[in-house]
Amino acid sequence: MNEIFIFILSTMGALFILLAAIGVVRMPDLYLRISVTTKAATLGIGLILGAAAIYFGDTAITSRVMAIILFMLLTAPVGAHMIGRASYFTGVKMWLDSQYDDLKDQYDPKTHKLSSEEKPEDKKI
Amino acid sequence: MNLYDYLYYVILPVLAISTVIIFIRFLKGPTLSDRVVSLDLLLTTGIGIIAVYSIHTDQPTFLDIAMILALIAFLGTVAFSYYLEKREKNE
Question: In chain A, whose CA is at the least distance from the CA of B43?
Answer without folding.
Answer: A41
